[in-house]
Amino acid sequence: MLKGHLDTIVLAALEAGPAHGYAIIETIKRGSSHTFDLPEGTVYPALHRLEDAGLLSSAWMTPPGGRRRRLYSLTKAGATALADRRKAWGRFSQAVETLLGGGRAWPA
Amino acid sequence: MLKGHLDTIVLAALEAGPAHGYAIIETIKRGSSHTFDLPEGTVYPALHRLEDAGLLSSAWMTPPGGRRRRLYSLTKAGATALADRRKAWGRFSQAVETLLGGGRAWPA
DNA sequence: TTCCATACCTAGTTATGCTAGGTATGGAAG
DNA sequence: CTTCCATACCTAGCATAACTAGGTATGGAA
Question: Is residue B1 domain-resident?
Fold first, then answer.
């Protein structure tokens, strides 16, 4: 479970340039050392959500001698959203870290 | 949104010793510098879930001249679960960090 | 006596991620 | 040539998590 951070990760995966769904899944898998091995049923609906929200745009492409793919790109709003989500992740992980780290069995 | 890490945080809050629901909310609020200001409707059901799962145990207490409170304690299974979840959090946050940090605007 | 902070609770809504299916094509293996 | 796998897309429906929005009750301060 990615618990609400899926969108952030997908946006980040597209920051380096446009990509299609299947490739995004692979990028996330390799980039996380297989910690996030996301099923398509998770990623495709997320891409549609993000496009509906205006954070991504898409276009069908057919590479020569290849199969049709839908290429997703970050919109300007998407880039802004990613920046916001990066900050939110920082606050979030910092807070969790403090709460988890601060909990000692018992200080002497 | 705590995105599935609520249980981890609640378990961690009880690591230092038993506490009641309202106090746990305050502990999490202060410990996270108000990043996590959790509504009761979030925390109480979580406590019940964790107790049903055997990770917490509870007992009603009435301090002298005070009001009745339900004191929650970590069970042995709860302590084990907390250790597991700490590791899971480490893997999770590490992976997100890599994916977010690795996404550069463009490498030269 | 009125109000606030404490202290507990739950029904119902919403959104998220996943399961479990389905369609289709290019290329390799047999 | 046919069978199978990896690629590549999709959706309906389920489970669950967190929250909203209510409710009850008490001790102490104003």
Answer: no
